[in-house]
Specification:
The protein has 306 residues and is an alpha/beta fold. Helices cover 41% and strands 12% of the residues. β5, α5 and β6 form a beta-alpha-beta unit. The chain is globular and about 50 Å long.
Length: 306
């Protein structure tokens, strides 16, 4: 098991911290001494997660704050509340996401739900919080991608999937976009001399509620989809599945532009290793175009945030 180094004195923001990999990351970071902000869409679920962590670690420093990544106004309010505190953010973990809802759904800003929640919301949050992040002595931005990014495509002609919605392909696009955002931010850090590590992780095939929660959106009962019905494949519980994320967030060996995931069978399970990003994620021209499009769609830009 990966041993999280001492995190005393650090402020860590974890999105989607009420369950799954987000909750596990929050628990282990708090156990290592970090002050953790559980950034969640539903406060009651965040408070429940906080109480469960405190039951095992009474000294944990945990704070619940609301952010809905499917609502850019909520992202702005959350970022403004942290800026008002004025405390540098040592680590921002973009973990929250939604996976493969069976019918096309939209965010509060009329983006396709996965592109909006998994990419545009985290993009806006990252850029808005960048001044606080860069004020920390050794900051990191860690973004959760997925192995399915390898078959993702950025559909610049129809990124919102208004035509021919395909749940799994829309999910793959959003996770490829996350990885491209990570690598582009890493390039910006190098070009501008920022003392910032921007890296990414993927959990392999980790058993969380992500697979079923997305498939149940818009339905009375969850539907079995290709993403949640591969019972014959090796999978792992949330503990080891969170370790690539924790490694990216805390390991002294994690690097700017790094990508980490399981080392076992087809990258589905096993101890953390360095993963080579898929070729499309390494296309700097497309990444620059995607970043510019994200700035246009969200109205959030580096120039405005600095």
């Amino acid at each position: 098991m990966y041993a999280v180094p001492d995190q005393a004195g650090k402020l860590v923001v974890v999105t989607g911290a009420n369950s799954g990999t987000g909750k596990e990351a929050a628990r282990r970071l708090a156990e290592a001494g970090a002050r953790v902000v559980l950034a969640v869409r539903t406060i009651a679920k965040g408070e429940q997660a906080r109480e469960e962590i405190l039951a095992h670690h009474p000294g944990a420093e945990l704070e619940v704050r609301r952010v809905d990544l499917a609502d850019l106004a909520s992202v702005g309010e959350f970022a403004d509340s942290l800026k008002a505190d004025g405390t540098p953010v040592d680590v921002l973990i973009n973990n929250a996401g939604v996976m493969a809802p069976p019918t096309r759904m939209t965010t509060a800003d009329d983006f396709e739900l996965q592109f909006g929640s998994n990419f545009l919301g985290p993009f806006a949050l990252t850029v808005r919080l960048l001044p606080l992040v860069l004020a920390a002595p050794g900051p990191r931005v860690v973004t959760m991608s997925s192995g399915v990014a390898s078959y993702g495509r950025i559909r610049f002609d129809d990124p919102q999937w208004k035509r021919g919605y395909r749940p799994n392909l829309a999910y793959a696009q959003s996770k490829l976009a996350d990885l491209m955002m990570t690598l582009h931010l890493a390039d910006l850090a190098r070009q501008r001399g920022w003392n910032l590590i921007s890296n990414a992780a993927h959990p392999g095939f980790t058993r969380t509620n992500l697979q079923t929660a997305g498939a149940s959106l818009g339905r009375d009962k969850p539907k079995r989809t290709p993403m949640n019905s591969f019972g014959f494949l090796p999978s792992q519980p949330v503990g080891p599945g969170t370790e690539p994320l924790l490694y990216a967030a805390t390991s002294p060996d994690a690097v700017n532009g790094g990508y980490y995931g399981p080392s076992g069978w087809f990258g589905l399970v096993g101890p953390t290793t360095t993963v080579r990003p898929p070729r499309r994620a390494r296309d700097a021209v497309i990444a620059n175009r995607l970043w510019a499009e994200a700035e246009r769609l969200t109205g959030v830009s580096l120039a405005a945030s600095r």
